[in-house]
Specification:
The protein is an alpha+beta fold. 62% of the residues lie in helices and 7% in strands. It is built from 25 helices and eleven strands. The protein has helices at 2-10, 12-36, 47-59, 83-96, 105-108, 138-151, 161-165, 175-194, 200-220, 229-258, 263-290, 298-333, 346-357, 359-374, 395-405, 427-435, 471-480, 492-504, 507-526, 530-555, 560-564, 576-606, 609-638, 644-676, 685-691, and strands spanning 68-72, 101-103, 120-122, 124-126, 155-159, 382-383, 416-420, 440-445, 454-460, 486-491, 572-573. A four-stranded antiparallel beta sheet has the order 8-9-7-10, sandwiched between helices. Keywords: Cell membrane, Membrane, Transmembrane, Transmembrane helix. It is a multi-pass membrane protein.
Amino acid sequence: MESFVRVLLRHRRWVALGWLLVFLAGALTAARLTDRLSYDFSLPGQPGYETEQALIAAYGTAAPAAFVPVVTVPEGTTVEEQLGLVSSIFENVRQTVPGVRVVDFASTGDRGFLTEDGRSTFGLVYAPPPQGLDSPLQGAVEEAVVDRAASTGFQGYVTGYEQLSSGSESAGPSVLVETLLGGLGALAVLAFVFASFLAVVPLLVAAVAILTTFLAVLGLTVVADVSFVVQYLIALVGLGVAIDYSLLVVSRWREERARGAANDDAVVTAVRTAGAAVLASGVTVAVSLLALVVFPVPLLRSMGYGGMLIPLVSVAVVLTLLPVLLSAVGPRVDVPRIRKESSASRGWTAWARGVVRLRWAAAIGALAFLAVLILPVGGLQFGQARSASLAQNGPAYDAVEVLRDGGVGTGVLTPMSVLFRPEAGASDTLAGVIAGVPGVRVAVAAPPAADGSFAVDVVPEEETVDNASTGIVDDVRRSVKDVAGFVGVAGSGAQVEDYGTAVYDNFPYVLAAISVITFLLLVRTFRSVLLPLKAVLLNLVSVAAVFGLATWFWQEGHGSDALFGVSGTGAMTFWLPVLIFAFLFGLSMDYEVFILARMREEYDATGSTDGAIVAGLGRTGRLVTSAALILFFSFAALASAPMTDIKVFATALGVGILLDATVVRALLVPALVSLFGTWNWWLPAWLARVLRVPPAPAAPAPARAPVRSR
């Protein structure tokens, strides 16, 4: 590392010029990335997905229904009395919106499409699968229903699960605004940490890292699909990660300069020590994200490929461009020098001494606190958020309220389509069999497709959005699975079951892969067996605590309504737990590496475990807390988005980062290191040879010396 940075400093003009060209290329091409990103939600090989593909081939439309039109006639009359006018509204959708399949009361005669008072009716509009996130037909469907209903004196609405998921009438800030808000929060923290114009340097590094990552992801799209979600992660997670890494290196550079080192020598030492920790941290985060490729789900795989570039590019920029900037202009922008780095933080040094003195109480108290947070995780459900936790106003919400008041359950938002081949027999008979399944409100046969196959459209009484509510899907499947020509069941409930099989059946393998690879990386970084093992286990405990807190807050609704106006979701959207785990596991390990790498350095210099704890935490405590605050501000900005899933994702990561940087890294880690003594630093000779690092034999604990900070 030292030789590497000295070569950089000898050619700093070329390095700076190279990064300037990359920065400009990223700025010029960033807008093109959006058109190259994937909106692939496929689940190859899963029964619900394969049935949906067969439906698309037969009818040209996907399942579940993209739109649910609702029509209400004036008080004093009923839908049946106004059937001619009401049916004309649904017919208008068929005539004016290309490629859709409409199922309604007039075309089926099933009274399950009517509310109890007879004044309102709903329909199902199946549309071709959209190429992007939103259906391009939404405006046309709304115009066909709402305008035509108004012209007849009726009230028309269009609702659906996706419409409710889009949020209420008030839209949140754009991603650019969210990034700027996160950047302002980061600037405030950096100004406090450095108390000089040096605070601008990490922001400059972050800007280069973000645009470079956009450029790298653009290149990746040539050979692989990359999810549209990655662009948001680059903007906000990339901002926090790049600043965090810069913060560690710049702080060490200031420390070395305060000790009297020449500027370039201070840069070399900072990169050799803090830079090595940054490299280990970045690789760990990248491994956590790359492990997503284990899942047979294109959405998660593309997040893994694209997401791993965020920390890797940030590491590359911090280890090459940042040393050049510090060498060229560091001393000139480090004004005014209000905060000195010649000694460790007095507050964090006193805290570390207290933890060492009360290590048993600190360890037991922290573990008990985390155990309380973990308790609710046993009730974690996956699937999709309940409709009650989505939009709280707007036309889509009003339509659901009309149906609910009329005795129609929310199952209308998650209908099923059961597909049969021609040899299955009479479609009406099969629809009657399915209609007899408890919990089914409507089961009507669709007209045969061109190849003779046909679908039965099924509306359950209650929505099928999580693994606790998809029993009706299994019941419907069992009722007809022995029929010759039965293909399968498609829809939201079937999709939830598909994700359960594809994602969570494979999750133990992902967990094992991440844990083993991270352990091996950290063994080499810390030259220890016990420290990496403890780091991996504590990371798993920390992530479990976040899931428990998210379950209690979001799924069960203890506070989500008061703070965000969102009722309990009842479940975590199927992709959220996996993505939260991958990011949080990697980001939390950053702080473990920052703290323990400095403790290892101090122990090698002094031979005192307790002294290493006090000196290491005294030097890194303020940095880790500041880094956590920077990431927290980034996620807090992201939580202002109107979509519930984004709020859950952002708050889980934000709170998880703060929890990890305080209770785990500032309290539990030093307490356990103190309890383990010299066994923290043991690395057997045979393993050291394999990893090509010096061995660290276990030795009896030395006599306890007075704890001092360096």
